[in-house]
Design brief:
By secondary structure, this protein is mainly beta. The protein folds into two domains: about 425 residues, 7 Propeller (Methylamine Dehydrogenase, Chain H), CATH 2.130.10; about 240 residues, no CATH class. Helices cover about 0% and strands about 40% of the residues. It has two helices and 50 strands. It has a six-stranded antiparallel beta sheet with strand order 1-2-28-27-26-25, with no helix packed on it. The chain starts with 8 loop residues before the first helix and ends with a strand.
Length: about 700
């Protein structure tokens, strides 16, 4: 967020650097450049009228300096319901029902909503005014289909909550009222929402000593519930948090695998917090760095190995060019600022976000800067593109590009310019996706149609082979349509897409997953113990619409489980006549013509919750279980009459939670149980 507030600058700076101020410290202030007329650095050299699509040619898109970034459109503030205001932060929303894309740009006196589905012709839909007064620091984030807007230094503003589905029916611009206001806070500097967990993290507020204020959005996004606070430790540090990035951790430090962590820009240090227990937030590390003036904001690389941070005061205080600080966080208790990247401009760096291998920075008067993170391990960033929204100069003043939003599937990039309005951009040569996956009898389309999933199988026992049959729900059958052999799901947690597949077969197969957005094809085969598996497919669009993982980090599995022997011949199904007395209920599956009753109990070792599996019959011999959400399949079970008196129980899992499967033969009364230890990811086969 912007670090400029009018007031008694000298006295406040003295308090800050003397270490006296512990909450809501001032932003760094630097004298305006001689010849500039105001705190925004004077003229921008940019137009105040709407601009049409203009490619970047010979270093310019019209009057804008550029490199490998094209202008698709520009919408000035006075055409966004914000005449006389100044721009602030931005976020985006993709309607999961229609696929339309929307820009949510906050300005000093409210929030503007723009349909950018046709990026060359953005359509202004309406404006939601502030509840109190104007603020130069306003922020917005999205959870599911709800927008959350906060403002700093504005009295009892609270957090405005807006139902984004209302935008679907807008035909002419409107003035919107919020659907609700969260009043547990008044003023808030910034917020982040971990879409994978459903918790909002508000920072720099009038509560929690300016530290972490946590709200639960999961049960009712319209009515958040306050659940925790982080305001102090015993070391006398500054507790005011300026910005925050919260994730389900999946990096290299196994001590924190699957835990929810927040990486806080803490004015004079990088602070890492374990927020898994919202009522007892724990400090993991707080580390300062050389050259600190005002630790402002940062973002993790997608593997959670490195943290890229900007300091909003160092260019003015220390006199060097724009600088990005590179942190190695493989040891979370001892993060290290191991290298810095100095840019070719003097501008102040502001909000930045990492997406699909690139960091997108809003560097005030230097505009949008796009850098590859491929060489971060070597301490380097490589600039691959830019679009300068302030052609006049790149001086270190607080005006120009506030940030960027790069997470849309279409590839467009939103840049809010403080004095001008909304720039809609795209990297040169990067066209919109050709279209979503199309499902058919042999193809599943998962994750809102982004991934095309197919499977080829081979029976090593008789030499037959074929293409798998796609069965509704993410399942595949190979031979008999009633004999499900494979289940597949792809979840989006807001930071990446993760594939899970579980199997009820030891036949050979090749599972092909095609990313229709990038064209990348990933192939997975059954292993020697026929467990199924999990793999990261791609970074996400920043919006997690799927159910939260039960296993906090299913991709980190140290024990693969028993599995199904590749030498155990599973013969074709013989569907026995009804001989049992199984009666289906809310907790059990009736299998093999109602002879066998299957039940599951589970326990989440990460948070201590437990329960009974929710059954769903799929065929006469096969069914599935969900644990917490009926839409999130975790376990597949089938019971086969293999002939000759052989009864086979086969199960496959897409969870690393602890569970116990209980199977009862209602004809004989015989009961068997199969236990999956916590942290194990697999299934198995047993002759009943």
């Amino acid at each position: 967020m912007r670090c400029f507030r009018p007031g008694s600058y000298g006295f406040l700076l003295f308090l800050l650097f003397a270490g006296i101020v512990h909450a809501s410290p001032p932003h760094p202030i630097f004298a305006p450049h001689e010849g500039h007329k105001d705190d925004n650095g004077g003229p921008t050299g940019a137009p105040s009228e709407a601009q049409a699509a203009t490619p970047c040619v010979n270093g310019f898109a019209g009057s804008f300096p550029c490199k490998n970034v094209d202008l698709l459109s520009f919408l000035p503030l006075d055409q966004m319901g914000a005449a006389g205001a100044k721009g602030s932060d931005i976020w985006g929303w993709t309607d999961p029902q229609t696929g339309r894309e929307y820009a949510l740009m906050v300005v000093t006196n409210g929030a503007s909503f723009v349909d950018v589905t046709d990026p060359t012709h953005p359509r202004y839909l309406g404006f939601m005014p502030t509840r109190t007064t104007s603020s130069s620091n306003r922020d917005v984030r999205v959870y599911r289909d709800w927008a959350y807007v906060v403002a700093d230094s504005v009295g009892a503003h609270g957090m405005q909550i807006f139902d984004l589905k209302r935008l679907r029916s807008v035909t002419t611009p409107q003035t919107f009222a919020p659907d609700n206001v969260y009043t547990e806070v008044n003023t808030v500097h910034n917020l982040d929402i971990n879409t994978a967990t459903g918790f909002a993290y508000l920072v720099g507020s009038n509560t929690c000593n300016g530290g972490l204020h946590i709200a639960d959005l999961r049960a009712d996004p319209l009515r958040p519930r306050f659940v925790g606070c982080y305001s102090s430790d015993a070391d006398g540090a500054i507790y005011y948090i300026h910005d925050i990035h919260c994730v389900n951790y999946r990096g290299l430090d196994s001590r924190y695998a699957g835990r929810e962590l927040c990486f806080a820009s803490n004015v004079n240090a990088l602070t890492i917090l374990d927020v898994t227990d919202k009522a007892a937030v724990r400090l993991v590390a707080r580390k300062g760095y050389t050259g600190n003036a005002y630790c402002h904001q940062g973002w993790l690389t997608e593997d959670h190995r490195y943290f890229l941070m900007d300091d909003e005061g160092d260019e003015g205080k220390n006199g060097h060019n724009t600088r990005t600080y590179l942190w190695d966080v493989r040891d979370l208790a001892d993060p290290k600022n191991f290298a810095n990247h100095d840019h070719g401009t003097r501008a102040i760096d502001h909000d930045q976000y990492v997406h699909q291998g690139f960091v997108y920075q809003g560097n005030y008067r230097a505009g949008l800067r796009i850098l590859s993170v491929a060489k971060v391990p070597q301490g380097e960033l490589e600039e691959v593109g830019y679009f300068d929204v302030v052609p006049a100069d790149d001086e270190p003043f607080f005006s120009g590009a506030w940030g960027a939003y790069p997470f849309f599937k279409s590839g467009i990039i939103l840049v809010p310019a403080m004095e001008q309005g909304l720039f809609v951009l795209r990297r040169s040569g990067h066209s919109a996706p050709t279209g979503p996956c199309k499902a058919d009898a042999q193809t599943h389309c998962l994750a809102d149609g982004r991934f095309k999933v197919e499977v080829d199988w081979t029976n090593q026992f008789d030499g037959s082979s074929g293409r798998g049959r796609a069965v509704k729900g993410g399942f595949f059958s190979f031979g008999s349509a009633s004999n499900l052999e494979l289940m597949v799901k792809i979840l989006n947690d807001g930071s990446h897409y993760q594939l899970y597949y579980g199997q009820l077969t030891n036949l050979g197969f090749s599972l092909q997953v095609t990313d229709t957005e990038t064209g990348k094809v990933s192939v997975f085969t059954n292993g020697p113990n026929n467990c199924g598996g999990t793999a990261e497919l791609a970074p996400s669009d920043g919006h997690g619409h799927d159910e939260v993982w039960l296993g906090a980090n299913p991709s980190r599995v140290s024990r693969p489980g028993e599995g199904i022997s590749e030498n155990a011949a599973i013969v074709p199904v013989y569907d026995a006549a009804k001989k049992g007395t199984c009666a289906k209920g809310k907790d059990g599956l009736c299998l093999m013509s109602n002879r066998f009753l299957a039940k599951v109990t589970w326990r989440n070792q990460f948070n201590g919750s437990s329960g009974k599996g929710k059954p769903k019959p799929l065929s006469g011999v096969t069914g599935s279980f969900a644990f917490t959400s009926p839409s999130n399949t975790e376990l597949l079970v089938k019971v086969l009459d293999a002939g000759g008196g052989r009864i086979l129980v086969i199960w496959g899992a897409m969870s690393n939670l602890e569970y116990t499967l209980e199977v009862t033969d209602t004809k004989t009364g015989k009961v068997k149980t199969y236990h999956n230890p916590a942290g194990t990811y697999c299934g198995g086969l047993d002759e009943f």
